[in-house]
Amino acid sequence: MKNNTLQASGYSTWQITLLTVLRVMIGWHFLYEGLVKIFSPAWSAESYLKASVGPFSSIFHSMAESEVLLQAINLLNAWGLVIIGLCLFIGLFSKLAKILGIVLLAFYYLSFPPFPELGTSGFVDGNYWVVNRNLIEIAAIAVLLVFPTSGITGIDRFIFKRNKKQ
Protein backbone atom coordinates (compact mmCIF):
# COMPACT_ATOMS: atom_id res chain seq x y z
CA MET A 1 0.00 0.00 0.00
CA LYS A 2 1.45 3.34 -1.04
CA ASN A 3 1.77 6.25 1.31
CA ASN A 4 -0.66 9.12 0.55
CA THR A 5 2.23 11.60 0.78
CA LEU A 6 4.17 9.58 -1.78
CA GLN A 7 1.20 9.47 -4.14
CA ALA A 8 0.65 13.22 -3.75
CA SER A 9 4.30 13.93 -4.53
CA GLY A 10 4.08 12.58 -8.05
CA TYR A 11 7.34 10.66 -7.52
CA SER A 12 7.63 6.90 -7.88
CA THR A 13 8.77 4.76 -4.97
CA TRP A 14 12.13 4.25 -6.73
CA GLN A 15 12.59 7.99 -7.26
CA ILE A 16 11.87 8.73 -3.60
CA THR A 17 14.12 5.90 -2.45
CA LEU A 18 17.09 6.90 -4.60
CA LEU A 19 16.74 10.63 -3.88
CA THR A 20 16.50 9.86 -0.16
CA VAL A 21 19.57 7.60 -0.32
CA LEU A 22 21.46 10.38 -2.12
CA ARG A 23 20.39 12.93 0.53
CA VAL A 24 21.41 10.62 3.38
CA MET A 25 24.77 9.79 1.78
CA ILE A 26 25.64 13.44 1.23
CA GLY A 27 24.46 14.20 4.75
CA TRP A 28 26.71 11.47 6.12
CA HIS A 29 29.66 12.83 4.14
CA PHE A 30 29.19 16.33 5.55
CA LEU A 31 28.54 15.05 9.09
CA TYR A 32 31.59 12.77 9.11
CA GLU A 33 33.91 15.47 7.71
CA GLY A 34 32.72 17.89 10.40
CA LEU A 35 33.09 15.39 13.23
CA VAL A 36 36.63 14.53 12.13
CA LYS A 37 37.53 18.22 12.35
CA ILE A 38 35.85 18.69 15.74
CA PHE A 39 37.49 15.63 17.28
CA SER A 40 40.93 16.39 15.85
CA PRO A 41 42.26 18.99 18.31
CA ALA A 42 45.10 20.05 16.03
CA TRP A 43 42.85 20.60 13.00
CA SER A 44 42.77 24.08 11.51
CA ALA A 45 41.81 25.48 8.12
CA GLU A 46 44.96 27.62 8.18
CA SER A 47 47.17 25.45 5.94
CA TYR A 48 44.26 24.87 3.54
CA LEU A 49 43.57 28.59 3.23
CA LYS A 50 47.25 29.50 2.87
CA ALA A 51 47.71 26.93 0.09
CA SER A 52 44.72 28.15 -1.92
CA VAL A 53 45.47 28.51 -5.63
CA GLY A 54 42.12 29.65 -6.97
CA PRO A 55 41.12 33.02 -8.42
CA PHE A 56 40.22 34.21 -4.94
CA SER A 57 43.36 32.86 -3.29
CA SER A 58 44.39 36.29 -2.01
CA ILE A 59 41.13 36.46 -0.03
CA PHE A 60 41.65 32.96 1.37
CA HIS A 61 45.28 33.77 2.23
CA SER A 62 44.24 36.91 4.11
CA MET A 63 41.64 34.91 6.05
CA ALA A 64 44.43 32.65 7.29
CA GLU A 65 46.49 35.65 8.43
CA SER A 66 43.93 36.89 10.96
CA GLU A 67 43.90 34.77 14.12
CA VAL A 68 40.41 35.92 15.09
CA LEU A 69 39.00 35.31 11.62
CA LEU A 70 40.77 31.96 11.40
CA GLN A 71 39.23 30.81 14.68
CA ALA A 72 35.78 31.84 13.42
CA ILE A 73 36.38 30.01 10.13
CA ASN A 74 37.52 26.87 11.97
CA LEU A 75 34.41 26.93 14.14
CA LEU A 76 32.00 27.71 11.29
CA ASN A 77 33.57 25.16 8.97
CA ALA A 78 33.57 22.23 11.40
CA TRP A 79 30.18 22.91 12.98
CA GLY A 80 28.69 23.99 9.66
CA LEU A 81 29.62 20.62 8.20
CA VAL A 82 28.11 18.82 11.20
CA ILE A 83 24.87 20.79 11.21
CA ILE A 84 24.38 20.69 7.43
CA GLY A 85 25.21 16.98 7.43
CA LEU A 86 22.87 16.14 10.28
CA CYS A 87 20.04 18.14 8.69
CA LEU A 88 20.49 16.39 5.36
CA PHE A 89 20.87 13.00 7.02
CA ILE A 90 17.58 13.22 8.90
CA GLY A 91 15.74 15.51 6.49
CA LEU A 92 15.40 18.48 8.84
CA PHE A 93 15.29 22.04 7.44
CA SER A 94 16.76 20.41 4.39
CA LYS A 95 16.10 23.23 1.92
CA LEU A 96 18.26 25.58 4.01
CA ALA A 97 20.83 22.82 4.59
CA LYS A 98 21.07 22.18 0.85
CA ILE A 99 21.59 25.86 0.07
CA LEU A 100 24.24 26.21 2.80
CA GLY A 101 25.88 22.98 1.63
CA ILE A 102 26.14 24.34 -1.91
CA VAL A 103 27.65 27.60 -0.59
CA LEU A 104 30.22 25.75 1.56
CA LEU A 105 31.21 23.44 -1.30
CA ALA A 106 31.50 26.44 -3.61
CA PHE A 107 34.06 27.94 -1.22
CA TYR A 108 36.02 24.66 -1.30
CA TYR A 109 35.80 24.58 -5.10
CA LEU A 110 36.92 28.20 -5.48
CA SER A 111 39.86 27.73 -3.14
CA PHE A 112 41.24 24.81 -5.18
CA PRO A 113 39.57 24.83 -8.60
CA PRO A 114 40.73 22.02 -10.89
CA PHE A 115 42.23 24.19 -13.58
CA PRO A 116 45.49 22.88 -15.07
CA GLU A 117 47.20 26.27 -15.18
CA LEU A 118 46.93 26.56 -11.38
CA GLY A 119 48.92 23.41 -10.66
CA THR A 120 48.10 20.85 -8.03
CA SER A 121 48.27 20.86 -4.29
CA GLY A 122 48.36 18.42 -1.41
CA PHE A 123 44.71 19.34 -0.83
CA VAL A 124 43.61 17.99 -4.19
CA ASP A 125 42.68 14.31 -4.07
CA GLY A 126 43.13 13.45 -7.73
CA ASN A 127 43.77 14.74 -11.21
CA TYR A 128 40.79 16.67 -12.49
CA TRP A 129 39.99 19.20 -15.15
CA VAL A 130 37.17 21.62 -14.24
CA VAL A 131 34.98 18.93 -12.63
CA ASN A 132 36.01 17.57 -9.24
CA ARG A 133 34.17 15.93 -6.36
CA ASN A 134 33.14 19.29 -4.90
CA LEU A 135 31.46 20.32 -8.15
CA ILE A 136 29.80 16.91 -8.47
CA GLU A 137 28.49 17.16 -4.91
CA ILE A 138 27.21 20.69 -5.63
CA ALA A 139 25.32 19.29 -8.64
CA ALA A 140 23.93 16.40 -6.58
CA ILE A 141 22.68 18.77 -3.88
CA ALA A 142 21.16 21.00 -6.57
CA VAL A 143 19.24 17.96 -7.84
CA LEU A 144 18.01 17.32 -4.31
CA LEU A 145 17.02 20.98 -4.04
CA VAL A 146 14.74 20.78 -7.09
CA PHE A 147 13.43 17.30 -6.24
CA PRO A 148 12.73 17.73 -2.52
CA THR A 149 12.02 14.48 -0.71
CA SER A 150 12.53 15.38 2.93
CA GLY A 151 8.86 16.38 3.08
CA ILE A 152 8.14 12.72 2.33
CA THR A 153 10.97 10.79 4.00
CA GLY A 154 12.47 13.25 6.46
CA ILE A 155 11.57 15.06 9.65
CA ASP A 156 10.46 18.00 7.51
CA ARG A 157 7.28 16.05 6.74
CA PHE A 158 6.19 16.45 10.35
CA ILE A 159 7.19 20.11 10.58
CA PHE A 160 5.98 21.41 7.24
CA LYS A 161 2.74 19.52 6.73
CA ARG A 162 0.98 20.57 3.59
CA ASN A 163 -2.59 21.66 3.79
CA LYS A 164 -4.49 18.89 2.02
CA LYS A 165 -7.77 20.80 1.89
CA GLN A 166 -8.14 23.09 -1.07
Report the helical percentage: 55-70%
Put simply, the count of helices is 9
Helix-strand sequence: HHHHHHHHH
Distance between the termini: 25 Å
Global geometry:
globular
Number of strands: 0
Mean pLDDT across residues: 87
- What does the radius of gyration come to? 18 Å
Major beta-sheet overview: none
| Helix-strand category | mainly alpha
In words, what does this structure look like?
The chain is mainly α. It has one domain. It contains nine helices and no strands. The radius of gyration is 18 Å and the shape is globular. The model has no long low-confidence stretch (mean pLDDT 87).
Structure described in brief:
The chain is mainly α and 166 residues long. 66% of the residues lie in helices and 0% in strands.
Could you name the key traits of this structure?
single chain, 166 residues, mainly alpha, 9 helices
Element layout with pairings:
Layout: H1 4-9, H2 13-38, H3 46-50, H4 57-65, H5 67-90, H6 94-111, H7 133-146, H8 150-153, H9 156-159
